Amino acid sequence: MDFKRHIAARIGAEGLSEDELYSKLALPPNTEMGDFALPCFRLAKTLRKPPVRIAEEIRDGYPADDALVKEVTAVNGYVNFKIDRAFWAQETLGEVLKKRERYGASSEGAGKVVCIDYSSVNIAKPFHIGHLSTTVLGSALYKLHKFLGYEPVGINHLGDYGTQFGKLISAYKRWGSREEIEKGGLRALNALYVRFHEEAEKDPALEDEARAFFKKIEDKDAESVALFEWFKELTLKDVGRIYDLLDVHFDSWAGESFYNDKMQPVVDELREKGLLKESDGAQIVDLEAYGMPPCIILRSDGASLYATRDIAAAIYRKDTYDFYKCLYVVAYQQNLHFKQFFKVLELMGKEWAKDLIHVAYGMVSLEEGAMSTRKGRVVYLEDVIARCIEKARAIIAEKNPSLENKDEIAKTVGVGAVIFGALYNSKIKDITFSYDKVLNFEGETSCYVQYTCARANSVLMKGGSARGYAAQEVLPQEFEVIKQLSDFPAVLHEALEKYEPSYIARYAVDLAQKYNKFYFDCKILGAAEGEKNFRLALTEATLITLKNALSLLGIGVPEKM
Ligand code: ARG
Q1: Looking at ligand 1, which residue's alpha carbon is closest to its atom 11?
Q2: Which atom of ligand 1 is nearest to the CA of 337?
Q3: How far apart are CA 532 and CA 523, in angstroms?
Q4: How many angstroms does the Cα of residue 494 sit away from the middle of ligand 1?
Q5: What pTM, to 2 d.p., does this model score?
Q6: How close is the Cα of 181 to the center of ligand 1, in Å?
Q7: Which atom in ligand 1 lies closest to the alpha carbon of residue 330?
Q8: How far is CA 381 from CA 337, 442, 479, in A?
Q9: Nearest residue to 33 via CA among 95, 79, 93
Q10: 490: number of Cβ within 10 Å
């Protein structure tokens, strides 16, 4: 049962819709004040009345015979609602235990396709720590959309086009060997790339050779294309291993080169609509009126650019999927690029340009310091994951030496730590990844949440899952858990609206903390029969909800830890 909805529907406030009221109803930090609060400050402008008065009027207008809401008060511009706790508890537990792994799911997105462009790796370039956020953020948004009834389309917009492939072929032919590359995969390819840049500094003629090889790929020269395809295959094999570990999936792998034959119509349309201008031989769309540098469509040698491909890709996606929204989960360093090509599409008269959304995120660095692909100073994501698994294994071996399946569990815990570490903070923040922090069992971490799940599991193994239970007098510690449980659907809704999986991560830590407080303060197995059953139900509902939250982030839960 959605209490917020219940209350919102009964508040009489002229000029405000139920949905507006619904979105403003919040859980106050202090339960003593009320169970839900409606802050009236933001309403003051719309209603042209002081907040204190609005609050009083809403209080006076609330139906007195509502069995669910026990008390309505107005305090300092807030309306506070107190709910019958036993009723609330009974309803919430009933809902979670009935819906189980579907608890929190909804059909609010039914019929809406949402394209999500994420991870979008570059062929033959290292898959490094910088790709962590786009990969796990995008994947979490994918799962979340699906859970809320949308039809997500996961797209890996591969970076499989560009002059760097000419460089790579040149380097491979000069210094590479098939065996070495087969064995070393992406790392060996990157070593070649680094070597090319070192040698090209001494011998600039190499750059011409690279350009020539790139031209050969474009002209579909068999040998060059075969080499490129091989590089691509090696890359996808390497990144596939990481996607498997992180439980990340895609529906489409259409990369930049997929649009090779889809750009001419774009150029034609731009020209027809009078949007193309020549500038130093290049074809551009002037964006000065919008305070941006021009968007270059064709270079002076006729080559297309990253933006040209993105424009063609957006049109293709609209035609193919008829998306409701198209999200691009890409670092904020590319803010300008997205603003520019979104604008170009708008100028072309695509009314759906407003549905393109750049989901920007901040940088991840390691405590060890910055990296540089060209110079070969790279922190491979695979190494970061491996190290987390290793550390998790050591911690688990120390905490619980007799545990079975240690390897499996260390993997779940280690991978979870990497994902959670990247998702815990608001996405736009730059973060410094710290192994000790993400694997702190007492911190705000996935292992803390996983450990809480293991604790709940062990309670249920001993006590059995609750059959009949009835909430009578609900203690504050129990009530905190109940409230948190009932807030889950609303948190998911918010997380989707704001494209913030961090809300789910924080929610999980909050719920785990509240459950642990309850666990340490209240007897479960030793309580009287009625109370025991209620507390077992509370425990089971918590476990279900924590699992659901983590699984939306791509994180598993071991039964024991
Ligand atoms: N491959 C690009 C990069 O690594 C990201 C592509 C993002 N997606 C897009 N449609 N532009 O920077």
Answers
A1: 310
A2: 11
A3: 8
A4: 26
A5: 0.92
A6: 25
A7: 7
A8: 26, 25, 41
A9: 79
A10: 21
Q: What is the number of the ligand 1 atom nearest to the C-alpha of 338? A: 11
Tokens for 546?
A: 């924590």
Distance 122 CA to ligand 1 centre (A): 8
Whether the Cβ atoms of residue 469 and residue 532 lie closer than 8 Å to each other: no
Which protein residues touch ligand 1 with a CB less than 6 Å away? 117, 120, 122, 157, 159, 310, 328, 330
CA-CA-CA-CA dihedral for 10, 15, 18, 22, to nearest 10: -100
Task: Please tell me the total number of residues recorded for the chain in this structure.
Answer: 561
What DSSP state is assigned to residue 330? Answer: E
- Distance CA(380)–CA(397), nearest Å, equals 26
Q: Are 285 and 347 in contact (CB under 8 A)?
A: yes
| Closest atom of ligand 1 relative to the 331 alpha carbon | 12
Rounded CA-CA distance 119/139 in Å is: 9
**Distance from the alpha carbon of residue 299 to the mean position of ligand 1, in angstroms:** 19
**How many A from CA of 310 to the centre of ligand 1?**
9
Q: Are 211 and 301 in contact (CB under 8 A)?
A: no
Cα-based angle 555, 560, 561 (whole degrees, multiple of 5): 80
DSSP character at residue 463: H
Phi/psi of residue 230, each to 5°?
Answer: -65, -45
Cα-to-centroid distance, 119 and ligand 1 (Å) = 8
| Ligand 1 site-directed mutation target among 116, 120, 335, most atoms within 8 Å of CB | 120
Q: What are the structure tokens assigned to 209, written together?
A: 């050779």
**Considering only CA atoms, which residue is closest to atom 6 of ligand 1?**
120
Q: How far is the CA of 330 from the centre of ligand 1 (A)?
A: 7
* Domains assigned to the chain: 3-83 (3.30.1360.70)
pLDDT in tens, the chain (561 residues): 678 889 999 997 777 889 889 988 988 877 788 889 999 998 888 888 999 999 999 999 999 888 889 999 999 999 999 989 998 899 999 999 999 999 999 999 999 999 999 999 999 888 988 899 999 999 999 999 999 999 999 999 999 998 889 999 999 999 999 999 999 999 999 999 999 999 999 999 999 999 999 999 988 999 999 999 999 999 999 999 999 999 999 999 999 999 999 999 999 999 999 999 999 999 999 999 999 999 999 999 888 899 999 999 999 999 999 999 999 999 999 999 999 999 999 999 999 999 999 999 999 888 766 555 555 568 899 999 999 999 999 999 999 999 999 999 999 999 999 999 999 999 999 999 999 999 999 999 999 999 999 999 999 999 987 667 887 789 999 999 999 999 999 999 999 999 999 999 999 999 999 999 999 999 999 999 899 999 999 999 999 999 999 999 999 999 999
